[in-house]
Amino acid sequence: MSKIYTSFEDEKLIDSVLQKDKGLMCSDKLPKWTVLRLALAQSLKSSAEFYEENQDQPEAGGKEYNLRQVTGKGQENDFTDLFCTLLSVYHRENLFADDNRFRTLLQKHIRRGLRDMRTSWKDSHDFHEYLYQELFTDSDYQKSIIMNLREKIVSAINEIGVSGNIEDQLDGPRITRFLISLSDVNDLDRLRKGLEKLSFLLGLQKQGIFLQSTNQERVAGLDIPRSQDSWYQINGNNLREWVLHTPHNMILPAWPGVDVLGKPFIFDITEAPHILVGGTTGSGKSICLHTLLLSLLLSQSSDQLKICLIDPKHVEFTPYAALPHHMYGKVITSSEEALRILTQLVNEMEERESILASNKVRDIIEGEIKGVIELPRIVVFVEELADIFIQSRAIETPLARLAQKGRAAGIHLILSTQRPDAETFSGLLRSNIPSRIALTVQKSSESKIILDEVGAERLSGKGDMLIKISGSNIIRVHGVKIKQNDIEECISKFRRNE
Ligand SMILES: Nc1ncnc2c1ncn2[C@@H]1O[C@H](COP(=O)(O)OP(=O)(O)OP(=O)(O)O)[C@@H](O)[C@H]1O
After folding, report:
1. What is a single molecular function from GO for this protein (predicted)?
2. DSSP assignment string, 402-426
3. What's the CA gap between 191 and 275, in Å, rounded?
4. Which atom of ligand 1 lies at the shortest distance from residue 480's CA?
5. Which of 51, 86, 270, 438 shows a CA-CA span of 20 to 30 A to 426?
Protein backbone atom coordinates (compact mmCIF):
# COMPACT_ATOMS: atom_id res chain seq x y z
CA MET A 1 0.00 0.00 0.00
CA SER A 2 1.20 3.57 -0.69
CA LYS A 3 2.86 5.09 2.31
CA ILE A 4 4.30 8.38 3.46
CA TYR A 5 7.23 7.92 5.87
CA THR A 6 8.35 10.30 8.58
CA SER A 7 11.43 10.28 10.81
CA PHE A 8 11.71 10.24 14.58
CA GLU A 9 12.54 13.98 14.52
CA ASP A 10 9.50 14.65 12.31
CA GLU A 11 7.27 12.81 14.77
CA LYS A 12 8.59 14.88 17.67
CA LEU A 13 7.73 18.03 15.72
CA ILE A 14 4.25 16.74 14.84
CA ASP A 15 3.58 16.02 18.53
CA SER A 16 4.74 19.53 19.48
CA VAL A 17 2.48 21.14 16.87
CA LEU A 18 -0.50 19.16 18.15
CA GLN A 19 -0.01 20.00 21.83
CA LYS A 20 -3.00 21.62 23.52
CA ASP A 21 -1.12 24.51 25.08
CA LYS A 22 1.43 25.13 22.32
CA GLY A 23 1.63 24.75 18.58
CA LEU A 24 -1.82 24.76 17.00
CA MET A 25 -3.41 24.88 20.47
CA CYS A 26 -6.51 22.92 19.43
CA SER A 27 -8.70 21.67 22.24
CA ASP A 28 -9.57 18.47 20.34
CA LYS A 29 -6.71 16.33 19.25
CA LEU A 30 -6.29 16.72 15.51
CA PRO A 31 -5.07 13.80 13.44
CA LYS A 32 -1.34 13.81 12.84
CA TRP A 33 -1.69 14.04 9.10
CA THR A 34 -3.05 17.58 9.54
CA VAL A 35 0.53 18.60 10.20
CA LEU A 36 1.68 16.70 7.09
CA ARG A 37 -0.69 18.83 5.03
CA LEU A 38 0.69 22.01 6.62
CA ALA A 39 4.19 20.73 5.84
CA LEU A 40 3.19 20.30 2.19
CA ALA A 41 2.00 23.93 2.08
CA GLN A 42 5.23 25.03 3.74
CA SER A 43 7.36 23.20 1.21
CA LEU A 44 5.41 24.52 -1.78
CA LYS A 45 5.93 28.07 -0.48
CA SER A 46 9.68 27.57 0.01
CA SER A 47 11.92 29.36 -2.44
CA ALA A 48 14.86 27.02 -1.76
CA GLU A 49 15.91 24.60 -4.45
CA PHE A 50 14.10 21.24 -4.38
CA TYR A 51 16.40 18.30 -3.84
CA GLU A 52 15.39 14.82 -4.84
CA GLU A 53 17.06 13.02 -1.94
CA ASN A 54 15.84 9.56 -1.17
CA GLN A 55 13.69 9.28 1.98
CA ASP A 56 11.42 6.63 0.66
CA GLN A 57 11.56 4.01 3.35
CA PRO A 58 10.58 3.49 6.98
CA GLU A 59 12.95 5.04 9.52
CA ALA A 60 13.64 3.95 13.09
CA GLY A 61 11.36 5.91 15.43
CA GLY A 62 9.44 7.33 12.47
CA LYS A 63 5.93 6.52 11.37
CA GLU A 64 4.11 5.35 8.26
CA TYR A 65 0.99 7.13 7.06
CA ASN A 66 -1.33 5.78 4.42
CA LEU A 67 -1.35 8.02 1.39
CA ARG A 68 -5.15 8.03 1.65
CA GLN A 69 -5.00 9.64 5.11
CA VAL A 70 -2.84 12.45 3.83
CA THR A 71 -4.78 13.14 0.64
CA GLY A 72 -8.22 12.25 2.04
CA LYS A 73 -8.83 10.01 -0.98
CA GLY A 74 -12.35 8.58 -1.00
CA GLN A 75 -13.38 10.73 1.97
CA GLU A 76 -15.65 13.73 2.15
CA ASN A 77 -12.71 16.13 1.85
CA ASP A 78 -10.71 14.46 -0.89
CA PHE A 79 -7.67 16.58 -1.79
CA THR A 80 -6.02 14.02 -4.08
CA ASP A 81 -6.70 15.91 -7.29
CA LEU A 82 -5.82 19.23 -5.71
CA PHE A 83 -2.47 17.95 -4.37
CA CYS A 84 -1.75 16.24 -7.69
CA THR A 85 -2.49 19.47 -9.59
CA LEU A 86 -0.32 21.57 -7.28
CA LEU A 87 2.61 19.20 -7.57
CA SER A 88 2.17 18.83 -11.33
CA VAL A 89 2.37 22.60 -11.68
CA TYR A 90 5.30 22.89 -9.26
CA HIS A 91 7.32 20.21 -11.06
CA ARG A 92 5.94 20.86 -14.53
CA GLU A 93 5.12 17.20 -14.91
CA ASN A 94 1.82 15.43 -15.46
CA LEU A 95 1.59 13.54 -12.19
CA PHE A 96 -1.95 12.35 -12.95
CA ALA A 97 -0.30 9.92 -15.34
CA ASP A 98 2.07 8.47 -12.74
CA ASP A 99 0.69 7.60 -9.29
CA ASN A 100 4.01 6.43 -7.99
CA ARG A 101 5.85 9.61 -8.97
CA PHE A 102 3.03 11.66 -7.37
CA ARG A 103 3.41 9.74 -4.11
CA THR A 104 7.20 10.09 -4.18
CA LEU A 105 7.08 13.84 -4.71
CA LEU A 106 4.36 14.28 -2.11
CA GLN A 107 6.51 12.38 0.36
CA LYS A 108 9.57 14.52 -0.43
CA HIS A 109 7.65 17.79 -0.10
CA ILE A 110 6.12 16.74 3.18
CA ARG A 111 9.51 15.75 4.57
CA ARG A 112 11.03 19.01 3.35
CA GLY A 113 8.22 21.05 4.92
CA LEU A 114 8.54 19.16 8.21
CA ARG A 115 12.28 19.75 8.21
CA ASP A 116 11.78 23.48 7.63
CA MET A 117 9.30 23.67 10.48
CA ARG A 118 11.56 21.68 12.77
CA THR A 119 14.42 24.08 12.28
CA SER A 120 12.61 27.38 12.06
CA TRP A 121 9.93 26.94 14.70
CA LYS A 122 10.47 26.28 18.38
CA ASP A 123 7.60 25.43 20.68
CA SER A 124 8.41 28.53 22.74
CA HIS A 125 7.37 30.62 19.70
CA ASP A 126 3.80 31.29 18.51
CA PHE A 127 3.03 28.64 15.86
CA HIS A 128 0.20 30.57 14.22
CA GLU A 129 2.39 33.64 13.87
CA TYR A 130 5.19 31.45 12.50
CA LEU A 131 2.91 29.86 9.87
CA TYR A 132 1.42 33.19 8.95
CA GLN A 133 4.90 34.53 8.29
CA GLU A 134 5.85 31.44 6.33
CA LEU A 135 2.77 31.10 4.20
CA PHE A 136 1.21 34.49 3.78
CA THR A 137 3.88 37.16 3.75
CA ASP A 138 5.40 38.54 0.55
CA SER A 139 1.94 39.03 -0.94
CA ASP A 140 1.37 42.18 -2.93
CA TYR A 141 -0.73 44.36 -0.65
CA GLN A 142 2.06 46.86 -0.34
CA LYS A 143 0.72 49.67 -2.50
CA SER A 144 -2.68 50.06 -0.88
CA ILE A 145 -1.20 49.82 2.60
CA ILE A 146 1.30 52.55 1.80
CA MET A 147 -1.32 54.87 0.34
CA ASN A 148 -3.23 54.65 3.60
CA LEU A 149 -0.07 55.17 5.55
CA ARG A 150 0.79 58.43 3.73
CA GLU A 151 -2.46 60.03 4.81
CA LYS A 152 -2.06 58.81 8.36
CA ILE A 153 1.50 60.11 8.59
CA VAL A 154 0.62 63.60 7.46
CA SER A 155 -2.11 63.87 10.05
CA ALA A 156 0.07 62.29 12.76
CA ILE A 157 2.98 64.69 12.24
CA ASN A 158 0.53 67.58 12.30
CA GLU A 159 -0.75 66.30 15.64
CA ILE A 160 2.73 66.52 17.14
CA GLY A 161 3.05 70.09 15.92
CA VAL A 162 5.17 69.54 12.81
CA SER A 163 4.07 71.03 9.53
CA GLY A 164 5.76 68.98 6.87
CA ASN A 165 5.00 67.53 3.47
CA ILE A 166 5.84 64.11 2.19
CA GLU A 167 8.25 64.73 -0.67
CA ASP A 168 8.90 61.18 -1.64
CA GLN A 169 8.99 57.65 -0.32
CA LEU A 170 11.50 54.85 -0.66
CA ASP A 171 10.36 51.30 -0.07
CA GLY A 172 12.62 48.81 1.64
CA PRO A 173 11.88 45.19 2.48
CA ARG A 174 10.16 46.03 5.77
CA ILE A 175 10.08 49.78 6.18
CA THR A 176 9.11 52.67 3.99
CA ARG A 177 11.24 55.77 4.29
CA PHE A 178 9.06 58.85 3.98
CA LEU A 179 11.04 61.94 3.06
CA ILE A 180 9.49 64.87 4.89
CA SER A 181 10.34 68.41 3.92
CA LEU A 182 10.33 70.71 6.93
CA SER A 183 9.74 74.40 6.56
CA ASP A 184 10.70 75.29 10.12
CA VAL A 185 14.11 74.04 11.26
CA ASN A 186 12.75 73.50 14.78
CA ASP A 187 10.45 70.87 13.33
CA LEU A 188 13.41 68.51 13.20
CA ASP A 189 13.67 68.63 16.97
CA ARG A 190 9.92 68.23 17.34
CA LEU A 191 10.04 65.20 15.10
CA ARG A 192 12.91 63.65 17.08
CA LYS A 193 11.16 64.19 20.38
CA GLY A 194 7.81 63.11 19.01
CA LEU A 195 8.84 59.72 17.57
CA GLU A 196 7.21 57.77 20.36
CA LYS A 197 3.97 59.71 19.98
CA LEU A 198 4.08 59.18 16.21
CA SER A 199 4.42 55.44 16.75
CA PHE A 200 1.46 55.54 19.05
CA LEU A 201 -0.64 57.60 16.64
CA LEU A 202 0.15 55.19 13.82
CA GLY A 203 -0.68 52.18 15.99
CA LEU A 204 2.77 50.64 15.69
CA GLN A 205 2.83 49.27 19.24
CA LYS A 206 6.39 48.55 20.35
CA GLN A 207 7.91 48.89 16.89
CA GLY A 208 9.54 52.24 16.56
CA ILE A 209 10.00 54.87 13.94
CA PHE A 210 13.60 55.78 13.21
CA LEU A 211 14.57 59.29 12.15
CA GLN A 212 17.23 59.51 9.43
CA SER A 213 19.10 62.49 8.15
CA THR A 214 19.24 62.76 4.38
CA ASN A 215 21.51 64.56 1.94
CA GLN A 216 18.72 66.89 0.85
CA GLU A 217 18.28 70.30 2.40
CA ARG A 218 15.56 70.53 5.08
CA VAL A 219 14.46 66.98 4.38
CA ALA A 220 14.28 64.35 7.12
CA GLY A 221 13.62 60.65 6.57
CA LEU A 222 11.13 58.77 8.72
CA ASP A 223 11.65 55.02 8.58
CA ILE A 224 8.21 53.62 9.27
CA PRO A 225 7.74 49.87 9.73
CA ARG A 226 5.05 48.32 7.55
CA SER A 227 2.79 45.51 8.61
CA GLN A 228 4.28 42.06 8.21
CA ASP A 229 2.10 41.02 5.31
CA SER A 230 3.90 43.55 3.13
CA TRP A 231 7.47 42.49 4.02
CA TYR A 232 9.55 40.77 1.50
CA GLN A 233 11.89 38.26 2.87
CA ILE A 234 15.61 38.04 2.27
CA ASN A 235 16.50 34.40 1.85
CA GLY A 236 19.30 31.95 1.22
CA ASN A 237 19.15 32.50 -2.56
CA ASN A 238 19.97 36.16 -1.98
CA LEU A 239 22.92 35.25 0.19
CA ARG A 240 24.29 32.79 -2.39
CA GLU A 241 23.99 35.46 -5.07
CA TRP A 242 25.79 38.13 -2.99
CA VAL A 243 28.63 35.80 -2.12
CA LEU A 244 29.40 35.47 -5.83
CA HIS A 245 30.05 39.22 -5.88
CA THR A 246 32.19 39.49 -2.76
CA PRO A 247 34.82 42.22 -3.16
CA HIS A 248 38.31 40.72 -3.49
CA ASN A 249 39.77 42.74 -0.62
CA MET A 250 37.51 41.04 1.94
CA ILE A 251 39.27 38.34 3.94
CA LEU A 252 36.38 36.94 6.00
CA PRO A 253 33.27 38.40 4.33
CA ALA A 254 30.01 38.36 6.26
CA TRP A 255 26.69 39.23 4.61
CA PRO A 256 24.15 39.48 7.46
CA GLY A 257 21.32 40.96 5.37
CA VAL A 258 20.21 44.16 3.69
CA ASP A 259 19.96 47.75 4.89
CA VAL A 260 16.53 49.28 5.34
CA LEU A 261 16.32 50.19 1.67
CA GLY A 262 17.25 46.69 0.54
CA LYS A 263 20.95 47.11 -0.27
CA PRO A 264 23.05 44.09 0.77
CA PHE A 265 25.32 44.89 3.70
CA ILE A 266 28.76 43.34 3.99
CA PHE A 267 31.56 43.59 6.51
CA ASP A 268 34.86 41.84 7.05
CA ILE A 269 35.06 39.79 10.23
CA THR A 270 38.83 40.37 10.38
CA GLU A 271 38.07 44.05 10.88
CA ALA A 272 35.36 43.48 13.46
CA PRO A 273 37.42 41.54 14.88
CA HIS A 274 35.10 40.00 17.52
CA ILE A 275 31.32 40.30 17.67
CA LEU A 276 28.60 40.02 20.29
CA VAL A 277 25.14 39.12 18.96
CA GLY A 278 22.42 39.87 21.52
CA GLY A 279 18.65 39.86 21.48
CA THR A 280 15.62 38.52 23.24
CA THR A 281 14.36 34.99 22.65
CA GLY A 282 12.87 34.64 19.19
CA SER A 283 14.51 37.82 17.87
CA GLY A 284 16.56 35.92 15.29
CA LYS A 285 19.99 35.41 16.90
CA SER A 286 20.41 31.81 15.80
CA ILE A 287 19.42 32.59 12.23
CA CYS A 288 21.84 35.52 12.28
CA LEU A 289 24.63 33.18 13.42
CA HIS A 290 23.73 30.72 10.63
CA THR A 291 23.88 33.59 8.13
CA LEU A 292 27.32 34.71 9.30
CA LEU A 293 28.56 31.13 9.27
CA LEU A 294 27.13 30.36 5.82
CA SER A 295 28.61 33.61 4.46
CA LEU A 296 32.00 32.28 5.51
CA LEU A 297 31.46 28.69 4.39
CA LEU A 298 30.22 29.77 0.97
CA SER A 299 33.36 31.79 0.36
CA GLN A 300 36.15 29.93 2.19
CA SER A 301 37.70 26.53 1.70
CA SER A 302 38.54 24.36 4.68
CA ASP A 303 42.22 25.22 4.12
CA GLN A 304 41.49 28.92 4.51
CA LEU A 305 39.01 28.74 7.36
CA LYS A 306 38.70 26.68 10.53
CA ILE A 307 35.67 26.94 12.77
CA CYS A 308 34.88 26.09 16.39
CA LEU A 309 31.17 25.78 17.00
CA ILE A 310 30.14 25.78 20.66
CA ASP A 311 26.49 24.96 21.11
CA PRO A 312 25.13 24.20 24.59
CA LYS A 313 21.60 23.99 23.11
CA HIS A 314 22.72 20.89 21.15
CA VAL A 315 20.51 21.88 18.23
CA GLU A 316 21.65 24.89 16.31
CA PHE A 317 25.00 23.70 15.02
CA THR A 318 24.32 19.97 14.75
CA PRO A 319 23.71 20.14 10.97
CA TYR A 320 27.29 21.33 10.49
CA ALA A 321 28.80 18.26 12.16
CA ALA A 322 30.02 16.72 8.89
CA LEU A 323 31.94 19.79 7.67
CA PRO A 324 35.67 19.50 7.07
CA HIS A 325 36.27 22.95 8.63
CA HIS A 326 36.10 22.00 12.31
CA MET A 327 39.29 23.01 14.12
CA TYR A 328 38.83 20.20 16.66
CA GLY A 329 36.86 17.80 14.50
CA LYS A 330 33.32 18.35 15.81
CA VAL A 331 30.64 20.60 17.23
CA ILE A 332 31.28 21.25 20.95
CA THR A 333 28.22 20.79 23.14
CA SER A 334 29.45 20.49 26.72
CA SER A 335 30.99 23.16 28.91
CA GLU A 336 33.95 20.87 29.81
CA GLU A 337 34.81 20.40 26.16
CA ALA A 338 34.29 24.10 25.51
CA LEU A 339 36.75 24.99 28.27
CA ARG A 340 39.26 22.48 26.93
CA ILE A 341 39.12 23.62 23.32
CA LEU A 342 39.15 27.32 24.19
CA THR A 343 42.26 26.70 26.30
CA GLN A 344 43.78 24.85 23.34
CA LEU A 345 42.91 27.82 21.17
CA VAL A 346 44.75 30.15 23.56
CA ASN A 347 47.79 27.87 23.11
CA GLU A 348 47.30 28.00 19.34
CA MET A 349 47.15 31.80 19.56
CA GLU A 350 50.40 31.89 21.53
CA GLU A 351 52.10 29.57 19.04
CA ARG A 352 50.95 31.80 16.22
CA GLU A 353 52.29 34.84 18.11
CA SER A 354 55.74 33.25 18.25
CA ILE A 355 55.57 32.49 14.51
CA LEU A 356 54.65 36.13 13.88
CA ALA A 357 57.50 37.33 16.10
CA SER A 358 60.08 35.06 14.47
CA ASN A 359 58.99 36.34 11.06
CA LYS A 360 59.11 39.92 12.33
CA VAL A 361 55.54 40.72 11.35
CA ARG A 362 52.86 42.38 13.49
CA ASP A 363 49.99 40.20 12.46
CA ILE A 364 48.86 37.46 10.13
CA ILE A 365 47.76 39.97 7.47
CA GLU A 366 51.22 41.52 7.28
CA GLY A 367 52.72 38.02 7.21
CA GLU A 368 50.51 37.11 4.25
CA ILE A 369 51.35 40.31 2.37
CA LYS A 370 55.06 39.61 2.85
CA GLY A 371 54.49 36.01 1.82
CA VAL A 372 56.04 34.56 5.00
CA ILE A 373 52.91 33.26 6.72
CA GLU A 374 50.07 31.12 5.52
CA LEU A 375 47.71 30.08 8.28
CA PRO A 376 43.95 29.47 8.22
CA ARG A 377 41.73 31.98 9.96
CA ILE A 378 39.83 30.57 12.94
CA VAL A 379 36.32 31.74 13.79
CA VAL A 380 34.73 30.64 17.06
CA PHE A 381 30.93 30.73 17.29
CA VAL A 382 29.31 30.47 20.73
CA GLU A 383 25.54 29.92 20.79
CA GLU A 384 24.21 31.29 24.09
CA LEU A 385 27.03 32.67 26.15
CA ALA A 386 24.89 32.95 29.29
CA ASP A 387 24.14 29.19 29.29
CA ILE A 388 27.81 28.38 28.86
CA PHE A 389 28.71 30.69 31.75
CA ILE A 390 26.08 29.11 33.99
CA GLN A 391 27.68 25.74 33.33
CA SER A 392 31.25 26.98 33.73
CA ARG A 393 32.31 30.51 34.55
CA ALA A 394 35.93 29.46 33.99
CA ILE A 395 35.27 29.65 30.25
CA GLU A 396 35.33 33.42 30.48
CA THR A 397 39.10 33.44 31.06
CA PRO A 398 40.21 31.87 27.73
CA LEU A 399 37.44 33.76 25.90
CA ALA A 400 38.71 37.07 27.28
CA ARG A 401 42.32 36.16 26.34
CA LEU A 402 41.22 35.35 22.79
CA ALA A 403 39.22 38.56 22.63
CA GLN A 404 42.22 40.57 23.84
CA LYS A 405 44.83 39.16 21.51
CA GLY A 406 43.21 36.87 18.93
CA ARG A 407 43.00 39.36 16.09
CA ALA A 408 46.72 39.46 15.22
CA ALA A 409 46.81 35.65 15.22
CA GLY A 410 43.76 35.40 12.94
CA ILE A 411 41.34 34.17 15.63
CA HIS A 412 37.90 35.77 15.84
CA LEU A 413 34.98 35.33 18.22
CA ILE A 414 31.26 35.55 17.49
CA LEU A 415 29.33 35.23 20.75
CA SER A 416 25.56 35.26 21.07
CA THR A 417 23.38 35.81 24.09
CA GLN A 418 19.72 36.29 24.87
CA ARG A 419 20.68 37.77 28.23
CA PRO A 420 22.50 40.96 27.43
CA ASP A 421 23.27 41.90 31.03
CA ALA A 422 26.36 43.09 32.79
CA GLU A 423 26.95 39.64 34.28
CA THR A 424 27.06 37.83 30.93
CA PHE A 425 28.85 40.55 29.04
CA SER A 426 31.33 41.52 31.70
CA GLY A 427 33.90 44.30 31.67
CA LEU A 428 36.83 42.36 30.24
CA LEU A 429 34.88 40.74 27.40
CA ARG A 430 32.97 43.92 26.78
CA SER A 431 36.02 46.11 26.33
CA ASN A 432 37.63 43.61 23.95
CA ILE A 433 34.62 42.83 21.78
CA PRO A 434 34.13 46.06 19.90
CA SER A 435 31.58 44.94 17.32
CA ARG A 436 27.99 44.32 18.26
CA ILE A 437 24.83 43.09 16.63
CA ALA A 438 21.67 43.94 18.56
CA LEU A 439 18.47 42.17 17.56
CA THR A 440 15.23 43.16 19.23
CA VAL A 441 15.54 43.48 23.00
CA GLN A 442 12.95 44.02 25.72
CA LYS A 443 14.36 47.13 27.32
CA SER A 444 16.42 50.11 26.27
CA SER A 445 18.92 49.23 29.03
CA GLU A 446 19.65 45.96 27.18
CA SER A 447 20.18 47.87 23.97
CA LYS A 448 22.70 50.03 25.83
CA ILE A 449 24.57 46.99 27.10
CA ILE A 450 24.91 45.57 23.60
CA LEU A 451 25.39 48.71 21.53
CA ASP A 452 26.16 51.42 24.08
CA GLU A 453 23.05 53.11 22.64
CA VAL A 454 19.29 52.76 22.88
CA GLY A 455 17.21 51.76 19.86
CA ALA A 456 17.18 47.95 19.67
CA GLU A 457 14.06 47.88 21.85
CA ARG A 458 12.18 49.55 18.96
CA LEU A 459 13.12 47.05 16.26
CA SER A 460 10.50 44.90 14.61
CA GLY A 461 11.83 41.45 15.55
CA LYS A 462 12.53 38.47 13.26
CA GLY A 463 16.03 39.31 12.18
CA ASP A 464 15.71 43.10 12.37
CA MET A 465 19.02 44.28 13.82
CA LEU A 466 21.33 47.17 14.55
CA ILE A 467 24.93 46.47 13.64
CA LYS A 468 27.93 48.34 14.94
CA ILE A 469 31.18 47.18 13.44
CA SER A 470 34.18 48.53 15.30
CA GLY A 471 34.68 52.19 14.52
CA SER A 472 31.72 52.53 12.12
CA ASN A 473 28.28 54.04 12.51
CA ILE A 474 25.36 51.88 13.53
CA ILE A 475 23.46 50.47 10.58
CA ARG A 476 20.03 48.86 10.64
CA VAL A 477 19.91 45.56 8.80
CA HIS A 478 17.11 43.12 8.00
CA GLY A 479 18.61 39.68 8.23
CA VAL A 480 18.69 36.84 5.76
CA LYS A 481 16.24 34.13 6.69
CA ILE A 482 18.38 31.05 6.46
CA LYS A 483 16.50 27.77 6.39
CA GLN A 484 17.53 24.20 6.93
CA ASN A 485 17.65 23.62 3.17
CA ASP A 486 20.18 26.40 2.76
CA ILE A 487 22.41 24.84 5.37
CA GLU A 488 22.06 21.40 3.81
CA GLU A 489 22.79 22.70 0.36
CA CYS A 490 25.96 24.39 1.56
CA ILE A 491 27.13 21.31 3.44
CA SER A 492 26.34 18.96 0.57
CA LYS A 493 28.66 21.02 -1.65
CA PHE A 494 31.53 20.20 0.68
CA ARG A 495 30.51 16.55 0.67
CA ARG A 496 30.52 16.54 -3.13
CA ASN A 497 33.93 18.26 -3.21
CA GLU A 498 35.56 15.87 -0.72
N1 LIG B 1 15.89 37.24 9.05
C2 LIG B 1 14.68 36.78 9.35
N3 LIG B 1 13.63 37.01 8.52
C4 LIG B 1 12.39 36.58 8.84
N5 LIG B 1 12.10 35.87 9.95
C6 LIG B 1 13.10 35.61 10.80
C7 LIG B 1 14.45 36.04 10.55
N8 LIG B 1 15.22 35.65 11.58
C9 LIG B 1 14.41 35.00 12.43
N10 LIG B 1 13.14 34.97 11.97
C11 LIG B 1 11.97 34.35 12.61
O12 LIG B 1 12.16 34.38 14.01
C13 LIG B 1 12.14 33.06 14.55
C14 LIG B 1 13.15 32.96 15.67
O15 LIG B 1 14.46 33.03 15.15
P16 LIG B 1 15.68 32.41 15.94
O17 LIG B 1 15.43 31.01 16.33
O18 LIG B 1 16.92 32.72 15.19
O19 LIG B 1 15.60 33.31 17.27
P20 LIG B 1 16.51 33.25 18.55
O21 LIG B 1 16.73 34.67 18.93
O22 LIG B 1 17.72 32.41 18.32
O23 LIG B 1 15.55 32.54 19.58
P24 LIG B 1 15.95 31.69 20.89
O25 LIG B 1 16.77 32.59 21.74
O26 LIG B 1 14.62 31.36 21.48
O27 LIG B 1 16.70 30.50 20.39
C28 LIG B 1 12.46 32.15 13.37
O29 LIG B 1 11.88 30.89 13.53
C30 LIG B 1 11.84 32.89 12.20
O31 LIG B 1 10.48 32.57 12.09
Report:
1. ATP binding
2. HHHHTTTTTEEEEEEES--STTTS-
3. 33
4. 1
5. 270
Residues 130 and 195 in one domain: no
State the distance from the centre of ligand 1 to the C-alpha of 201, rounded, in angstroms. 28
Measured in Å, residue 286 CA sits from the centre of ligand 1 at: 7
d(C-alpha 222, C-alpha 191), whole Å: 9
Instruction: Give 138's pLDDT tier (boundaries 50, 70, 90).
Output: low
Chain centroid offset of residue 479 CA? 6
Pick from 164, 195, 230: which residue ends a domain? 230
Same domain, 335 and 419: yes
Q: Closest ligand 1 atom to the C-alpha of 479?
A: 1
Atom 14 in ligand 1: which residue has the minimum CA distance? 282
Q: Report the predicted TM-score, pTM, of the whole model to 2 decimal places.
A: 0.74
**Residue 89 pLDDT level (bands cut at 50, 70, 90):** very high
Say what the pLDDT of residue 498 is: 52
CA of 193 to the centre of ligand 1 (A): 31
Q: Which atom of ligand 1 is nearest to the CA of 416?
A: 22
- Ligand 1 pocket test: pick from 265, 287, 383, 467 the residue with the most ligand atoms within 8 Å of its Cβ: 287
Other CB atoms within 10 A of residue 170 CB? 15
Write out the residue range of the structural domain in which residue 193 sits: 142-230
Question: CATH code at 189?
Answer: 3.30.980.40
Residues 109 and 205 in one domain: no
Binding site, annotated residues for ATP: 279-286
Same domain, 441 and 322: yes
The closest residue, in CA terms, to atom 24 on ligand 1 is 281
Which of 200-204, 266-270, 336-340 comes out lowest in average pLDDT? Answer: 200-204
Work out how many domains the chain is built from and give that number: 3
What average pLDDT does the chain have? 88
Residue minimizing CA distance to atom 29 of ligand 1: 120
Last residue of a domain, one of 230, 262, 286: 230
